[in-house]
Amino acid sequence: MTDEEQLLVALRRGDEQAFATLIDAYSPALLRVAVTYVRTRDVAEEVVQETWLGVIRGLDRFEGRGSLRSWLFTILRNTAISRGERERRSVPMSALALEEDDGPLLDPERFLPPNHARYPGHWAMAPTAWPVPEEGLLAGETRDVIASAIRELPPTQRAVIGLRDVEGWSSEEVCDALELSEGNQRVLIHRARTKVRAALERYFGTVEPTLAEG
Question: What does pTM read for this prediction?
Answer without folding.
Answer: 0.65
